[in-house]
Amino acid sequence: MRIIISACVFLVLCSFSAAFDPLDPTGNITIKWDIMSWTPDGYVATVTMNNFQMYRHIQTPGWTLGWTWAKKEVIWSMVGAQTTEQGDCSKFKANVPHCCKKTPTVVDLLPGVPYNQQIANCCKGGVVAAWGQDPSAAVSAFQVSVGLAGTTNKTVKVPKNFTLLGPGPGYTCGPAKVVPPTTFLTPDRRRKTQALMTWNVTCTYSQFLATKHPSCCVSFSSFYNETITACPTCACGCENKNKCVKSESKLLSVVGVNTPKKDNSPLLQCTRHMCPVRVHWHVKQNYKEYWRAKVAITNFNYRMNYTQWTLVIQHPNLNNVTQVFSFDYKPLVPYAAINDTGMFYGMKFFNDLLMEAGPTGNVQSEVLLQKDQNTFTFRQGWAFPRKVYFNGDECILPPPESYPFLPNSTPKTLIAPLTLFISLFMFLLF
C-alpha cells in the first residue's frame, strides 16, 4: 500500500513539475471574461486572452478555446471569433443562435474580415506573440452574446472545463474564478467604468504534455578544435525516419508539398537527428577582453514556416553581452540575483520569419561578450550553453563528454602511451 501511495505522490509531483518552467516561473495564459451588459435572457461579455509567457507564443494556425456551459446556455452571436460548429438549434423557431452546443469550440477570425465583425485585438488568425517579444501583440479578444444564462451576478454560472490548444496540446487550464470586476478608462482618461462581473481562467504549458519527443536539438563547434559535436542520433525520435525526404528528392518539386497539414504533421529532411529545428552554437573568436560566438538556427521541416520565432539561451556570460548582430536580444531575469539567460528573436520585417527547409531555411547571428577574468575559460565546455529553448520548447543538448575540448587539455592517459611509442621508435631508429 505504501508503494502505491508513494507512486501516486510521485506522479502528481511530476505532473506539477512538468508544467513549471524555471526560466519563466510566472508564465501563463490568462483568459478573462468581462460581462459588459445584461440582455433579456443573458449577457454580453468581452473575452480577453493575455499571453504572459516571456518566450512562448501561439503560432499559426492559432489558438482554439473550448469550455462546458454550466446550464443550458447558447451563444446568440459573436464578434471577432466564431465557433467551429453550430450544434442542434432546432428548438429555436425565429432567431437561431450562433451556437447551441454544450461544449462550444471557438477560433479566432482571419485578418481582413469586415469591420462590423471585428473588435480590438481580434482577427489575427489566432496568432498571439510572446509577452517578452511584443507585449502589444500578446493579446487576443472577442465578444460573445450569451442567452439562457441568467441576468444577475447571482444567477449567472461560470463555465467549466476550459481547454486551450495553442495550436496543439500542452496547455492545462484551471477552474474559472470570480474576481473583482475589471475597471476601464474612457478614451479621455477622465472617467472609470467597470465590468458587471469578471472571472479569470489561468492556463499553463507543459512540454511533457505537448509532445512525446523534443522538437529541436543543439550542435557545437569551436575555432580551437576541428571537432564538430553534432546533435545526438534520433534526438527527436525516429518515427519519421521512413517518411523523411532527401534534399535532392523530386518530391520537393511537387506543387503543394509545402502546404501544412491540419494535424501539423511534419515533412522532415532526412538527417541523423530527425529534428525539425537545429540550433548550432559556434565559438568563433577570442580577443583580449571579449569573445565572439555565432548562433545559427536551421529549419528541417518542409511544411513549416516559423513566424515570430524565439530562441532562449542560458549561459553564465550572458550577464556581459556587449553586442548582438542581426537578432534582437532581451535579457531574462526570472530571479533577481541571477542574470544568465537571454532571449533572441528576429528583427521585424527582416528575419522574424524562419522559412521552411531549403536554401533559405536558416537564420544566424553573432554575439559579442565581454570577459570576466575571474570566471572566463574555454575549458570543460564552459563556452557552450547550459540550456537552449526554441519557441518555448527545450532542445536536446549533446552529452558533455563530446564537447570540443582545448588542444592542451588532452587527457594524460592518452598522451603517455603516445609519448612512449614515439620515444621507442626514435630509439630503434638511431
TrEMBL record:
Signal peptide range: 1-19
GO cellular component: plasma membrane; side of membrane
Keyword set, alphabetical order: Glycoprotein, GPI-anchor, Lipoprotein, Membrane, Signal
COBRA C-terminal domain: residues covered: 215-404
Domain of life: Eukaryota
Subcellular locations according to the entry: Cell membrane
UniProt key word Signal: yes
One GO-annotated biological process of the protein: cellulose microfibril organization
Keyword Glycoprotein attributed: yes
Membrane topology, as annotated: Lipid-anchor; GPI-anchor
Membership in a protein family: Belongs to the COBRA family.
The protein, known as: COBRA-like protein
Source organism of the structure: Lactuca saligna (Willowleaf lettuce)
Organism placement in taxonomy: Eukaryota, Viridiplantae, Streptophyta, Embryophyta, Tracheophyta
